[in-house]
Design the sequence.
DNA sequence: TTGTAAGCGTTATCAC
DNA sequence: GTGATAACGCTTACAA
């Protein structure tokens, strides 16, 4: 005998196969089935096999909502990124999601479009699902968000940023260092009049940090910086065109340009070709981001590649460590400073 | 007086502010608070205001997990895509996520990498969260997946595909039509020897459908097709280079090439420049996808743009309609055939 | 190793 | 318009 009686028809969860159904099918209590699912070691061999068979036969799918409510912690992790499309964060999301999935955790995702208000809305909604952890981008949040995060008491990770003084887990790189690296690279290759082109989006603080690094490196080499700020209302690609055109018309045009990102650089490259400026002969170019098209341009674009995928993977690993899903011997690393990689191509 | 007594210290949900706390703070029952949240119309003005104040003061965040368990339907929608990064699906995810968020629904996301097995795993995990709806890519699923989906009894949407005969909601476009459109466009512009370059990834059935459309259109015009199949182990960009090199060495080289996607075309473009083949003078080029770099290439790439963002937005809208969140007068559209747009640029 | 009992925080139902 | 009560399906705590 396996089954006992028809379960009385209930009002809600219409016909869903429950743990209880499996338990009765096998002839054990629901706790044994629950243990089979969560701590199989504590279940006898015989029960393990019979429960496995029943699960398959009945097509039982554990109700994670009920489990989450009972245990006050669901196997779900929430992430807020500025945007999903766009060349920057997609790899981070991908790495994060895949690593989580491998360990049975699911990803709850929303985008903020660099608005702390939208971020706040997303986080408020997320917290309702009692996620096991929360991952955000950068350290810039609204006051209400900070309050919620403090009250939530779950692992919090800030990515694409590195603020050692802040409490959350930090996973990112130094934009300042990127500026230094790029500038030194151009200096080493013999360029003397190196300009920096800022992003047209005024809110891009990271770009300004990269610029500061550039200024420092040039200062150390005794070279005077030359910063170009595009009109704020232009799309980056157009802003890059504008920058190149205006810079090359100056009395002493630069012999190298460090663009705040690859979109700007691509615009610059195109404008250069149209204007008959030889790259890198007349002027070298360096971007940031290693967007997918960087190697497809003519000439291919030298750039600095941020560890986008690695940030996502590491964020997931730190989350899983904090949750005890992954166990390591090492001390837990709250601060994770990753490195960018300079990729020299034809444009420099 | 507002508060009554300290809530007894419970074992689990450590210190979380509950609906009950809000109710006691105001002096009503939890049901009134619940109604305030879900059907505010049924709550008196006075209570509405006092509850609103209490919610703000206490920092109450509704526990959606508990709500989901009680009502057997959470405000969460699950989506499986082949990949998150990559130029194809990111826009769809973005549009889907944003539209959902605007209506208070959250996105649960996973990627399948075109593996029905991984898709099955993701869907199994998702169903545990009783999502309000499920969105997948294409109609190709494992048997077990089909069974689960049938049993789940929630709105199911298949995107980036269009199979009128299948039961789920369909949102996509006709790849065959894309092939026809592209070929006719090239014919109209006077090209006579038009080649088609397939994708190097053998599993790309959509590309083969586009190719079939190309063959049909050429047949109707009395032109014989010329299909090039790259080596299967090459990355698309490299495959494109190979294709161009070999095609241009033939006795009668093509005067136009229709590439299965923009990555292939970009490779072809680069190889052409290196080989001194003038584009579009010696040979025109047409791609598919309108990847971000298409307009940045030299010459800029003519291509066919799929409605990626629109697919995502429409998927969300259909979900929300089916759930009754959005109400329209029109009859519900189960079949949604969208159109691609041909973007003529310098390469043709 | 297994079972019993008591919640987890919300909503459906029905009564007032 | 409001409230009492009983689920929702699972896990924690404790007992055997």
Sequence:
């Amino acid at each position: 005998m396996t089954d006992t009686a028809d379960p009385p028809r209930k009002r809600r969860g219409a016909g869903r196969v429950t743990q209880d159904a499996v338990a009765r099918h096998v002839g054990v209590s629901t706790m044994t089935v629950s243990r089979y699912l969560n701590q199989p070691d504590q279940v006898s061999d015989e029960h393990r096999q019979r429960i496995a068979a029943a699960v398959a036969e009945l097509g039982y799918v554990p109700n994670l909502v009920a489990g989450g409510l009972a245990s006050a912690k669901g196997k779900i992790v929430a992430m807020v990124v500025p945007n999903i499309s766009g060349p920057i964060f997609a790899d981070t999301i991908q790495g994060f999601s895949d690593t989580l999935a491998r360990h049975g955790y699911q990803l709850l995702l929303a985008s903020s479009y660099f608005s702390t208000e939208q971020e706040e809305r997303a986080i408020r909604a997320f917290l309702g699902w009692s996620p096991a952890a929360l991952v955000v981008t950068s350290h810039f949040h609204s006051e209400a968000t900070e309050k919620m995060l403090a009250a939530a008491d779950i692992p919090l990770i800030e990515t694409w940023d590195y603020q050692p003084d802040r409490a959350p887990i930090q996973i990112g790189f130094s934009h300042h260092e990127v500026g230094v690296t790029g500038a030194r690279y151009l200096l080493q290759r013999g360029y003397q009049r190196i300009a920096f082109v800022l992003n047209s989006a005024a809110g891009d603080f990271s770009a300004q940090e990269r610029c500061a690094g550039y200024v420092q490196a040039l200062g150390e080499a005794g070279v005077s910086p030359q910063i170009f700020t595009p009109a704020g209302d232009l799309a980056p690609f157009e802003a890059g065109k504008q920058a190149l055109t205006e810079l090359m018309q100056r009395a002493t045009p630069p012999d190298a340009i460090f663009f705040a990102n690859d979109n700007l650089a691509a615009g610059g490259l195109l404008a250069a070709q149209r204007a008959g400026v030889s790259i890198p002969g007349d002027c070298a170019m360096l971007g940031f981001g290693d967007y997918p098209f960087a190697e497809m341009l003519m000439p291919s674009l030298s750039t600095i590649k941020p560890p986008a995928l690695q940030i996502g993977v590491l964020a997931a690993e730190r989350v899983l460590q904090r949750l005890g899903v992954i166990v390591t011997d090492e001390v837990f690393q709250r601060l994770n400073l990753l490195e960018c990689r300079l990729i020299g191509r034809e444009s420099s």
